[in-house]
Every structure is written in C-alpha cells, then in structure tokens.
Amino acid sequence: MYLKNIHLYAFRNYQEQVLNLESQKTILLGNNAQGKSNLLEAVELLATLKSHRTNRDRDLILEGKKTAQILGTVKRTYGESELGITFRSPGRRSLTLNHENLRRHLEFLGHINAVEFSCLDLDLVRGSPETRRSWLDTLLIQLEPVYASIIHQYYKILRQRNALLKVIRKTVEEDNNYQDLSTEMSQLKLWDQQLAEAGTRVTRRRHRVIERITPLAQTWHREISSGTENLEINYLPNIQTESEEPQQVQQAFLDKIEKRRMAEQQLATTVVGPHRDDVEFNINQTPAKSYGSQGQQRTLVLAIKLAELQLIEDVIGEPPLLLLDDVLAELDPNRQNQLLEVIQGRFQTIITTTYLHSFDAQWLKSSQIMKVEGGKLSPF
Ligand SMILES: Nc1ncnc2c1ncn2[C@@H]1O[C@H](COP(=O)(O)OP(=O)(O)OP(=O)(O)O)[C@@H](O)[C@H]1O
Ligand SMILES: [Mg+2]
C-alpha cells in the first residue's frame, strides 16, 4: 500500500498543511516540539482511529478551533481510496470514505495499515500491563477490523457492570438490607453472562494473535541477537483455560466471577476479565521486564515491530506503512542496519528525526526530506 498524500486542517499544531509523499521514504526533520510526531499521529489515526498519545479528541484540535480534519489518499492493489476523519469539540467524530459519510467504524478501518515504532515502545517491556493490552488491541484491529467493535463492546459492558456494582455497594452501605437488592442481583447475573460472552471473544483473539506473532518475533530476535538469545512471549490471560473452546472459556469466566463475587462487591468493580490480561516477554527464560538490559529490551522491541510488519503483510497481502518516531538514534549501528535493510524498498516509511547524521548517503539520496517548523512543512 502507498500513502500518496495527507492533508491536515487545524490538527494539533498544523493550521493547514498538505504533504504529498513522493518517495517510498520520507524523512521529517526538525527541532523538538515542531510537529513531527503530530504528523505521524495523524497517519496512525487514519490506520487505527486511535492515537497512542491521547484518547481525547479535544487534544487533537488546534488550540482555539472547534474542528480538525485529517484526509489521506491511499493506493492499494484494489484501487485508491480517500479517507477522512473530522474531530469536533464538543461533539463526535465523523468519518468519510471517498467523500461519503460512514456510519460504522468498521468500514473505515483496514484501508491503511501502519506499524509505529517510537522510543515510547520500550514501555512495551517496562511499562504497565495496560500498555501491552493496548499494543495487542491495536495490532488486532489492523489484522481483523471487526475486533474494534468486539473490544468496544466488551468495555461498554464492563462500564455498565461496574456502574451496577457501585449501585449495589451504595445500597448495602446505606441500609444493610440485602432483600432490597434482588432486582439488582438478577440484573448482575445478566451482566455476568454478557461480560463472559464478550470477554471470551476478546481472550480468544488475543490468544490467537500471540500465537501467530511469537514465531516471527523469535526468528527476528535470534537474528538481531546473533543467535545468542532465546525469546519467549507468553499471553497471561486473566481467564485461564486448558482449551480455547468458546464454551469452556465462557464457563471458566463465569466460574471465576462466582469465586471472586465477594471481593468484587467490596471493591465495587469488576475484577475478572481480559481488562486484566498481561503479556510476558522472557529472554533466556528470564523476564525481560526486570532483568533485561536497555540494549536487550531494545532488541526485543525491534524484533516485535519487525514481526508486526511481517504479520500484517502476511494477513493483509500488502506491506503496511512503517512510522519511525525518533527511533534510529536510539539504536546502535548494528540494529540500525538491520532495520534499514528490512525496510529497504519494501515498506513505505516515514521517519522523524532531529539530525540527519544517522542516515547513510544512499538513504538520504532516495528519501524525500521535509523540514518541520512550527507546524509547517517545507522541502529541505
Ligand atoms: N491541540 C494543539 N494545538 C496547538 N498546538 C499543539 C496541540 N497539540 C500539540 N501541540 C503542539 O505541538 C508541539 C509538539 O509537536 P510534536 O509532538 O509533533 O513535536 P516533535 O516535532 O515530534 O518534537 P520532538 O522532537 O520533541 O519529539 C508542541 O509544541 C505542542 O504544544
Ligand atoms: Mg516527537
């Protein structure tokens, strides 16, 4: 796939900006806080409808404006499409495909695929489980767009169930009379069932994606670490079962809810389900999170990113875009070369950097270089 152009209107610090991508490789060069990452964020939004930096649309709109827009034209083997997102504050987003309004997110997703790699991605190893769940979810949305509605549905049920648990706790606290709660308790049973159904769909897909990405990441990892290290990726689902059969997962889910019923009512929040999943990365049988050196953690994340590129390409049938945010300078020359070699001509790549000296002459010659200054782009 090839992203031909991107138009920004009142997006972040861009007033109005068009970028025509004229080469497979684009370098965005600029000092700190000029708008380099903002541009990558716009591409990420076109690909996933999510930003890894914020989940408030208000942050995306140029200060003082009420709406912002991102338009992008992508060329695929099946043809060209123009995608548009309009953000409003206050208000909801609207989405367009070839100038027609879309009612469902599902029709928007999947036209542009992108893998982003930034220095923040080290959090994948070091950060909280939430970071790893979000990584899994973003990857899944790209592999099977329907997952976006599956995960959305799960969180919606979770919120409603949590609200009910709060009502129950409040009633119990106010007058210690459990008999008053029979309606709420039977409502809760219904939510249990819904949570288990939606949660099972989430768990099974997360399981599957880990199974698919692991061998790819292991191969890359061996190559980058020159065969000295062995990577293991383990999915740690909150609902653990022997088999992946939906019936069994759902039953295990309901059993666990039953077991944790008291704790849940005391805390007035749902303590069981895939919102508590995690992923574990081990290098030579040791958790990378606590024992890995900085360099080992970088190698690990690079291997995962390369595996993501490969997995998306395998599933989609076309190479996704690669967005590299300030990451080259972070890698040692050996890992830089590994990365640049893989990209070479295969993936359309947009790279941000503050200096050009990490790139070899060949790269510079074959790249379109744009200068970014105060939310304005100009040829370098
Ligand atoms: N909604 C907004 N309205 C106006 N300006 C914004 C908005 N959101 C972010 N900015 C500005 O955008 C700038 C940050 O842009 P960005 O993160 O793209 O920087 P960068 O060029 O990637 O810098 P670095 O090299 O430090 O990563 C900041 O100056 C910030 O104040
Ligand atoms: Mg940046």
Description:
The chain is α/β, with parallel strands linked by helices. It has two domains: 1-113 and 318-380, 3-Layer(aba) Sandwich (Rossmann fold); 121-315, Up-down Bundle (Glutathione S-transferase Yfyf (Class Pi), Chain A, domain 2), CATH 1.20.1050.90. It contains 13 helices and 15 strands. The protein has a six-stranded antiparallel β-sheet with strand order 2-1-4-5-6-7. It has a six-stranded mixed β-sheet with strand order 8-12-13-3-14-15, with helices on both faces. Strand 14 (367-373) and strand 15 (376-379) form a beta hairpin. Helix 5 (129-143) packs antiparallel against helix 6, helix 5 crosses helix 7 (182-224) and helix 7 packs across helix 8. The structure holds adenosine-5'-triphosphate and magnesium ion. Residues 36-37, 325-326, 352 line the site of magnesium ion. Residues 12-13, 30, 32-38, 59, 61-63, 326, 352, 354, 372 line the site of adenosine-5'-triphosphate.
Briefly say what this structure is.
47% of the residues lie in helices and 23% in strands.
- In terms of per-residue confidence, which ranges show pLDDT below 50 for 5 or more consecutive residues? none
- Strand order, sheet with most strands: 2-1-4-5-6-7
Beta-strand percent range: 15-25%
Q: What is the β-strand count?
A: 15
For CATH, the homologous superfamily of the largest domain is named as: RecF/RecN/SMC, N-terminal domain
> What is the chain-wise order of helices and strands?
EEEHHEEEEHEHHHHEHHEEHHEHEHEE
Main sheet?
A: 6 strands, antiparallel
On the 0 to 100 scale, the average pLDDT is: 93
Structural class: alpha/beta
Helix content: 40-55%
Rg value: 23 Å
Q: Count the domains.
A: 2
Instruction: Write the CATH architecture name of the largest domain.
Output: Up-down Bundle
- The top-level CATH class of the largest domain is Mainly Alpha
Q: What is the approximate shape? A: globular
